[in-house]
């Protein structure tokens, strides 16, 4: 162990402390939490988790969240692929302006759009569906996916395309069987980022849903206010929202540093 | 070299339609509201630019904007140097690299309101880990629901906890792309640690740092959920950032006109500052 590894260790400890506290709380009874401070759960209980897994309003929250996040990830990556290819391979009228305009959509505060989004999706009859949230999250996920994929595609030499045409490949066949495998790391990273930003966003998801597609994070806020202050239950629900992210991040661990650099280092 | 091909528009079309549907229609709704007055029942009156004038002159807007700039300034001044320092001290290869990266990325994957709730539980004066430690072990009187300074320290610490890893991961990606030969050359020349950083590492991190600073600016300037869940804008109005104030006006008081005008001013400021950052940071590339 070198001396300088102290810095990352201290930093990771700092990151883990609030997470530890949330997890520890989730194994405590509400009585224990309110009766005073204890570093470890004294009366270890799984009661909080049992409530979540047996009450449909709780576990449907998770299913809803995972559903719209998955739909959003699939849509974003699928439409971003051809667009990113166009930006990385061709010059066309207004390409730079279009690219910049796409990126500005990441700068719009979601708070600005909450009410108009509600009206728009009510008007087209999609209010309170998974598709509505998935489509709304496209606003900031598609530009990001295009940006990341364009970076990765730029790293693939153009000779690959030309050789394939000379060999008589049609464009769709070339794209699926040669080009996609060449940038599969980029597709993984783009999908990861779409998943991440759709999973953590709540303001739009909450605005666009009422009952049928309500995300887990919204269930948490409503339960917190209606059932008094059930800290243990809240902590258990919070702990469970960390797990999908942790699983996804484990799969892309080797690409993640590269993905954050948008393949543009 | 890219080839000129107008048919490429067909490739971009699906993206264009989906993003335009989500961006242009709501934006037009906002523009509509911003120039009209309504008393409900879908009856609207032309109002011209009055709302804009009213917002730009209101003390409340100036105060929220000031708090917003202070918050973003603190975030950038803390997270960027800290993130670079942590990235520099991370191991370059080996078993611990993926472990570090996964653990560091974890806070970014937690839903934003859970982040707020988590920090709320963490800082409760008598039963939260941090709150208990500060109040009972160190004897500092800490209660962020009463003390504006404590509330500010808490939301800034929470954001540092939440997002410093983004700067770390981006800087780290820039660092690992530097070939070993550069370091060997620096060693032969007898370069100090500082000059290695200044003339080798910093220039190599420039692209990714530009992305990091831009993303951190945009996201901290638009931050809503985490501070709202943690402090609700209080105590008083001390942590009412711009977007919290905006939601209060739009959904709390249902003043659609002023809220829409404020949204547009807000968006314009974000765009302008992002553009300034971008031009300043990429200026050297053109020379």
From TrEMBL, chain A:
Membrane topology: Multi-pass membrane protein
Entry-linked Pfam families: BPD_transp_1 (PF00528)
This protein's record includes keyword Membrane: yes
Localization (cell): Cell membrane
Annotated ABC transmembrane type-1 domain residues: 62-252
GO cellular component terms attached to this protein's record: plasma membrane
Signal sequence bounds: none
Record-level GO BP terms: transmembrane transport
UniProt keyword annotations, A-Z: Cell membrane, Membrane, Transmembrane, Transmembrane helix, Transport
CDD domains per the UniProt record, alphabetical: TM_PBP2
Gene3D superfamilies linked: MetI-like
Keyword Transport appears in the UniProt entry: yes
Transmembrane segments: 7-27, 66-87, 99-118, 130-153, 174-200, 231-252
Homology family: Belongs to the binding-protein-dependent transport system permease family.
Protein name, UniProt field: Carbohydrate ABC transporter membrane protein 2 (CUT1 family)
Native species: Tritonibacter scottomollicae (Epibacterium scottomollicae)
TrEMBL record, chain B:
Transmembrane feature ranges: 9-31, 69-88, 95-122, 160-178, 260-281
One Pfam family cited in the UniProt record for this chain: BPD_transp_1
Localization per Swiss-Prot or TrEMBL: Cell membrane
Gene Ontology biological-process entries: transmembrane transport
A GO cellular component annotation in the UniProt record: plasma membrane
Presence of keyword Hydrolase: no
UniProt family annotation: Belongs to the binding-protein-dependent transport system permease family.
Organism: Tritonibacter scottomollicae
Chain segments annotated as coiled-coil in the UniProt record: none
Protein name: Carbohydrate ABC transporter membrane protein 1 (CUT1 family)
Boundaries of every ABC transmembrane type-1 domain copy: 65-277
């Amino acid at each position: 162990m070198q001396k300088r590894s102290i810095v990352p260790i201290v930093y990771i400890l700092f990151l883990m402390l609030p997470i530890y506290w949330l997890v520890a709380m989730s194994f405590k009874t509400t009585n224990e939490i309110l009766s005073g401070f204890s570093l470890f759960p004294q009366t270890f209980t799984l009661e909080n988790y049992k409530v979540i897994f047996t009450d449909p309003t709780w576990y449907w929250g998770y299913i809803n969240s995972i559903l719209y996040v998955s739909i959003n990830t699939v849509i974003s990556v699928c439409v971003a692929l051809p667009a990113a290819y166009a930006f990385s391979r061709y010059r066309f009228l207004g390409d730079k302006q279009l690219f910049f305009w796409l990126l500005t959509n990441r700068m719009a505060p979601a708070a600005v759009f909450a009410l108009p989004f509600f009206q728009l999706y009510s008007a087209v009859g999609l209010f309170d569906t998974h598709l509505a949230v998935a489509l709304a999250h496209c606003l900031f996920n598609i530009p990001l996916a295009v940006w990341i994929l364009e970076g990765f595609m730029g790293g693939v030499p153009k000779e690959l395309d030309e050789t394939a045409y000379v060999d008589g490949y049609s464009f769709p066949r070339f794209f699926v069987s040669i080009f996609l495998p060449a940038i599969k790391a980029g597709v993984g990273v783009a999908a990861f980022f779409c998943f991440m930003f759709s999973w953590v966003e709540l303001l739009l998801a909450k605005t666009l849903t009422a009952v049928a597609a309500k995300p887990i994070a919204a269930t948490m806020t409503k339960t917190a206010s209606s059932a008094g202050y059930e800290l243990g239950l809240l902590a258990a629900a919070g702990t469970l929202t960390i797990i999908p992210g942790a699983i996804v991040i484990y799969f892309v661990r080797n690409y993640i540093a590269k993905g954050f650099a948008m393949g543009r280092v | 070299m890219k080839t000129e091909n107008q048919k490429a528009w067909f490739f971009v079309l699906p993206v264009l339609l989906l993003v335009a549907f989500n961006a242009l229609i709501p934006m037009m709704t906002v523009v509509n509201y911003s120039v009209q007055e309504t008393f409900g029942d879908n009856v609207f009156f032309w109002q011209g630019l009055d709302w804009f004038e009213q917002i730009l002159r209101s003390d409340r807007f100036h105060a929220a904007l000031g708090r917003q700039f202070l918050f973003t300034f603190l975030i950038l001044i803390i997270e960027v140097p800290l993130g670079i320092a942590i990235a520099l001290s991370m191991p370059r290869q080996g078993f611990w690299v993926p472990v570090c990266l996964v653990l560091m990325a974890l806070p970014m994957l937690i839903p934003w309101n859970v982040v707020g709730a988590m920090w709320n539980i963490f800082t409760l004066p008598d039963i939260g880990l941090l709150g208990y430690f500060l109040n009972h072990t160190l004897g500092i009187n800490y209660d962020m629901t009463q003390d504006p300074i404590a509330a500010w320290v808490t939301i800034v610490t929470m954001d540092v906890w939440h997002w410093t890893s983004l700067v770390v991961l981006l800087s780290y990606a820039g660092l690992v792309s530097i070939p070993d030969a550069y370091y060997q050359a620096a060693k032969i020349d007898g370069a100090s640690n500082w000059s290695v950083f200044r003339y080798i590492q910093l220039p190599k991190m420039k692209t990714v740092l530009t992305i990091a600073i831009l993303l951190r600016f945009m996201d901290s300037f638009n931050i809503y959920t985490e501070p709202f869940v943690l402090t609700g804008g209080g105590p008083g109005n001390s942590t009412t950032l711009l977007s919290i104030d905006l939601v209060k006006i739009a959904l709390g008081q249902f003043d659609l006109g002023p809220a829409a005008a404020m949204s547009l001013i807000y968006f314009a400021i974000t765009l302008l500052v992002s553009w300034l950052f971008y031009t300043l940071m990429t200026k050297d590339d053109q020379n």
